[in-house]
Design goal:
The complex is a heterodimer of chains A (about 425) and B (about 220).
Chain A (H helix, E strand, L loop, with lengths): L2 H17 L4 H16 L2 H16 L6 H14 L2 H13 L5 H14 L5 H18 L4 H17 L4 H10 L3 H7 L1 H21 L13 H7 L4 H16 L4 H18 L5 H35 L1 H11 L4 H16 L4 H18 L4 H15 L7 H9 L5 H24 L2 H9 L3
Helix pairs in contact in A: 1-2, 1-15, 2-3, 2-15, 3-15, 4-14, 4-15, 5-6, 6-7, 6-8, 6-11, 7-8, 7-20, 8-11, 8-19, 8-21, 9-18, 9-19, 10-22, 11-21, 13-14, 15-18, 16-18, 17-18, 17-19, 18-19, 19-21
Chain B lengths: L2 H4 L2 H4 L2 H5 L8 H4 L6 H6 L6 H26 L1 H18 L6 H15 L1 H6 L15 H31 L13 H29 L5
The chains are: A mainly alpha (about 425), B mainly alpha (about 220).
């Protein structure tokens, strides 16, 4: 059998086991092991899994993962979600769909201190949903806003998505994180516009709040966001200016939030254990996936499939944007069934060489890919944010939340198109960084 | 079948089940209908059920060990954070980084990741997709589960075996603090062994359901 045929059979086995529900990390190790065994020898294949796992579990740059997740855990414990929401509510209340816009802004703020989007959806669901419902917002709009807002955590740094992308493609994690800032702001703005248009078109879905807010109140309300600003500038400013590496930034951010929790006297045993356990659980899930992907990539590299595919696509006589559009559609489709990290580990070993062969900027593609994976968080049948939110808003059927999220999908696609037309938006900030 | 008699109350009320009740495969309220100490239970049982009783004990033991190991591992996240911050502060303000913080961070991460692998499996934290299998009948679901769990057991057993060999052959020490790597590499085998036991319990449960001996 030719190596390519073995690679294809391995990929088929991978898909079959995936559909049977095997945990993806072990599935990739399993198929990777069998493939390496077949293409080299048993002696060469046996040590690969154990060596790779230790290599991944004891690799300094990966310490950033538990630290980023700890940031989110401590930020929730500190009650930052509520404070952000209350501040932005005062600022945006008078806009059409003002509470929805405030929710989006608060989600963006929370995203600036947290790396995990499900945590954001759950935290914001508990704070913003009751408020919107109290003011008579349609459940579809209210839940759609929160589900979509939660996805911002994946794009606005600190973001787990960029860390995993950076690991798998060997790109600078610092540059990736910085490159997410402008697109994140643009996407948050687009989400805000969706809410405003929705409220304009269907005023009944978002009744205006009559209360006026004085300018003094608005200024005073800014007290609620100082922690977010301090932590964000500490973390991202440190990375941008090159004082600290991303891992150190994660540690500093988590520590700053920890101190805020202590100052607010909100530290309880239960909250601390929950935050630590969450950090451990997600880090373990992600790093086992990365280890699985590494083993599987060895096998794919031996099979020469990535080189063959990228050579074939680069030789095609079509515009590279057609290929890009197809890749984006694939991500959109996969996002309906897979979570973002799994999607990355499963696809990047083949897709990333294609992107390089087509001369797309790897960091720019990272942002676009992350954007499409965000869409996966709110597309049926498997949308992680929607599931989370369905647990919080028990009286709203899941289909209603999915429908509510549709207009925001349009915003994601439009943002992706904008970033493709103007790659500078993504690449400007990282191009200013020293290293 | 006899979980009632054997599940330790202290453990049932422990944080494992409190924190993620929706995910744990066995909820406390379903089992809290009987009484008696484990030893009484064993003595009072008909002969053919010893196997199940032992399995139930094994299940409780594995669960305790997984959670305990993950708990120890997760605690390392705090010193990891503090050490990194202290190192940064020392470097920026006093021009004195903490020696060896890089390698200590790596070791701490390895403890965090490898010790918690089994617990993460227990709470179904290692993601897989179920959009297809959940449309199957429960029998077929269990059959798929048996196949995939066997594959997991296979690869994890290789992980444990080779992890042990790799650790035993390791003689390197860290660059600055001269801490030997072997104990940390051994965690691959140790964490893997716990993970193996979790999958074994999983397999047992699925087989029992498949044979109609468990609801």
């Amino acid at each position: 059998m030719s190596p390519i045929l073995v690679g294809l059979l391995g990929s088929l086995l991978l898909v079959a086991l995936l559909l049977l529900g095997m945990p993806i990390a072990f599935m990739m190790m399993f198929v990777g092991f069998l493939g390496i065994w077949h293409l080299t020898s048993l002696d060469a294949a046996l040590p690969v899994v154990a060596k790779t796992l230790y290599g991944v579990a004891a690799h300094y740059p990966y310490t950033i993962i538990p630290l980023f997740i700890l940031m989110g855990g401590f930020a929730s414990t500190a009650g930052i979600t509520r404070e952000l929401y209350e501040t932005f509510d005062k600022w945006f209340r008078r806009l059409p769909g003002g509470l929805g816009v405030a929710t989006i802004a608060a989600c963006a703020g929370f995203a600036a201190v947290s790396g995990s989007s499900v945590a954001a959806a759950a935290a914001m669901g508990n704070v913003a949903l009751p408020e919107m419902r109290r003011f008579g917002y349609a459940p579809r709009l209210a839940t759609g806003v929160v589900a979509a807002g939660g996805t911002l955590s994946f794009l606005i740094p600190p973001s787990l998505g960029f860390v995993v992308y950076g690991m798998l493609t060997e790109q600078s994690i610092g540059k990736l994180l910085i490159s997410g800032i402008f697109p994140g702001i643009i996407l948050a703005g687009a989400y805000g516009l969706v809410v405003v248009f929705w409220a304009k078109l269907k005023p009944k879905a978002a009744p205006a709040s009559p209360q006026k807010v004085s300018f003094r109140e608005k200024i005073l309300a800014l007290r609620g966001i100082w922690e977010t600003f301090v932590v964000f500038f500490l973390v991202m400013g440190g990375i941008y200016l090159g004082f600290i590496n991303p891992t150190e930034a994660g540690a500093s951010g988590a520590f700053a939030l920890f101190v805020i929790v202590l100052l607010k006297r909100r530290l309880t045993w239960k909250a601390a254990v929950a935050a630590l356990l969450e950090a451990a659980r997600i880090s373990i899930m992600v790093l086992f996936l990365v280890a699985g992907a590494t083993v599987f990539s060895y096998f794919l590299a031996l099979s020469t499939i990535p080189a063959a595919v990228s050579g074939w696509i680069a030789g095609l006589d079509v515009s590279r944007y057609v290929v890009l559009a197809i890749i984006i559609l694939i991500y959109f489709f996969l996002g309906c069934f897979l979570d973002a990290v799994s999607m990355m580990v499963l696809t990047l070993p083949v897709i990333f060489p294609v992107i390089l062969a087509l001369n797309f900027h790897p960091i720019w593609f990272g942002v676009v890919a992350i954007l499409m994976m965000e869409a996966g968080l709110i597309t049926p049948p498997v949308g992680l944010n929607v599931y989370t939110l369905a647990g919080v808003a028990k009286d709203v059927p899941m289909t209603e939340i999915f429908k509510g999220a549709v207009p925001f999908l349009v915003a994601i696609v439009l943002t992706a198109v904008t970033l493709t037309a103007f790659p500078k938006i993504v690449l400007y900030l990282p191009s200013l960084m020293g290293r | 079948m006899w979980p009632v008699l054997l599940s330790s109350r202290k453990f049932e009320k422990g944080p494992v089940l409190v924190l993620r009740p929706g995910v744990d495969r066995q909820r406390p309220q379903k089992t809290e209908t009987g009484g008696g100490t484990p030893s009484q239970a064993v003595l009072g049982l008909p002969r053919g059920l010893y196997g199940e009783v032992l399995m139930e004990r094994f299940r409780v033991l594995v669960r305790k060990l997984s959670y305990g190991a993950c708990f120890i591992g997760m605690l390392f996240a705090l010193p990891l954070m503090l050490l990194t911050v202290a190192d940064v502060a020392g470097r920026i303000f006093f021009d004195k980084p903490i020696p060896g913080s890089f390698e200590l961070s790596e070791y701490m991460l390895s403890v965090l990741i490898l010790m918690g692998a089994a617990y993460t499996q227990h709470v179904k934290g290692h993601v897989g997709v179920d959009f297809l299998t959940k449309r199957f009948s429960s029998k077929l679901q269990d059959l798929c589960g048996v196949i995939t769990t066997l594959a997991c057991l296979f690869i994890v057993s290789i992980l444990v075996w080779q992890g042990y060999l790799d650790a035993m052959a390791e003689t390197a020490v860290s660059d600055q603090l001269r801490i030997p790597q072997r104990p940390f590499k051994m965690l691959v085998a140790l964490g893997g062994a716990l993970l193996f036991m979790e999958f074994a319990v999983d397999l047992w449960e699925k087989l029992e359901r498949l044979m109609g001996r468990r609801p």
